[in-house]
Amino acid sequence: MHYPEPISKLIDSFMKLPGIGPKTAQRLAFYVLNMKEEDVVDFSRSLMKVKRELQFCSVCGHITDVDPCYICTDKSRDRSIICVVQDTKDVIAMEKMREYSGMYHVLHGAISPMDGIGPEDINIPALLERLKDENVKELILATNPNIEGESTAMYISRLVKPIGLKTTRLAHGLPVGGDLEYADEVTLSKAIEYRTEL
Amino acid sequence: MHYPEPISKLIDSFMKLPGIGPKTAQRLAFYVLNMKEEDVVDFSRSLMKVKRELQFCSVCGHITDVDPCYICTDKSRDRSIICVVQDTKDVIAMEKMREYSGMYHVLHGAISPMDGIGPEDINIPALLERLKDENVKELILATNPNIEGESTAMYISRLVKPIGLKTTRLAHGLPVGGDLEYADEVTLSKAIEYRTEL
């Protein structure tokens, strides 16, 4: 309305992003106006590239620009362990830790009957296919520690029980660097239950 | 590092924007991944357009896609009043009010000896040229109500005094909808000083 058309269109685009309202969108759009041309060109190209060049790995479901992804094709990784996560961002969180060298399987969601999401709607059938072909010894069920994540883990664990596969779940307890005072009761009760001997 | 290249480049681009740190940039980049293709194309194009098609109006200094801008060429506006503001965003704020129908002059800054910004570094010479040519009766000095803005207003006001031009300054006082309790002392003292009779 009061803006020249190119800037009002950019404001609209920024407003489509999560957590960005009209004021922030306006501030960002005006900031772009004063950015270096090459930075804006990079930004514009990256947006298109992310949308056009990225896909999900046909093996594990992680986002990738080559298929299969760099994790699935990495010969140095341990193919006998698969870590099952809900989201591609979880893979990145795990990789940042630099301690896990097994494979991944991304579910792209969790079972949630309330939202009408069943086992067939997430990447579980592909996981079962993988278990048939690959020589897997352990399945780490690293779904989120909430109701949906827990029930998804439980569901998968029961599903693979007949195959005799070892399934594990990430430990519950106090976060490192956290404050006991601020821990919720459920976390605290888990921390007591799974206390370790020194 | 752990991200496919296109997404890590997009994260870098988002991080160049003000107020966006690594976590938010990651969240936004992953959000883009799931956006509708046409929205991403629009976003990407708008970025380029803002940078390539927008310029400053050669008359008033406001951002525009046509030169002179739509305000300077609007025949229905009152050409005898010029409102002097620091920033293009101030023009937009004034326009949103829908009560001012005069012209604008954008300084793109304020005099600030501390930062080495003198009268020649901001859009003041162009203002003086305009005053020579155009039939202006009043100059509203709407620079920001802080030290730099006040001294810029004072400077311009003294500069145009010999021409016998009427210069005015926006009123100080309590913001509408504000709380007296939270008003700072300077604002309150201005509000008392310029109190109006009912």
UniProtKB/TrEMBL annotation, chains A, B:
Q: Which NCBIfam families is this protein grouped with?
A: recR (TIGR00615)
Q: Where are the zinc fingers (C4-type)?
A: 57-72
Keywords on this record?
A: DNA damage, DNA recombination, DNA repair, Metal-binding, Zinc, Zinc-finger
Q: What is this protein called?
A: Recombination protein RecR
Similarity-based family:
Belongs to the RecR family.
Q: Which Gene3D superfamilies match?
A: 3.30.60.80, 3.40.1360.10, 6.10.250.240, RecR Domain 1
Kindly indicate whether the keyword Cytoplasm belongs to this entry: no
Molecular function GO terms recorded: DNA binding; zinc ion binding
The Toprim domain, residue ranges? 80-175
The cross-references to Pfam families, in alphabetical order and at most eight, read: RecR_C (PF21175), RecR_HhH (PF21176), RecR_ZnF (PF02132), Toprim_4 (PF13662)
Q: Does the keyword Protein transport apply?
A: no
GO BP, sorted A to Z: DNA recombination; DNA repair
Q: What does this protein do?
A: May play a role in DNA repair. It seems to be involved in an RecBC-independent recombinational process of DNA repair. It may act with RecF and RecO.
Q: Which InterPro entries match?
A: DNA_Rcmb_RecR, Hlx-hairpin-Hlx_DNA-bd_motif, Rcmb_RecR, Rcmb_RecR_Znf, TOPRIM_dom, TOPRIM_RecR
Lineage summary:
Bacteria, Bacillati, Bacillota, Bacilli, Bacillales
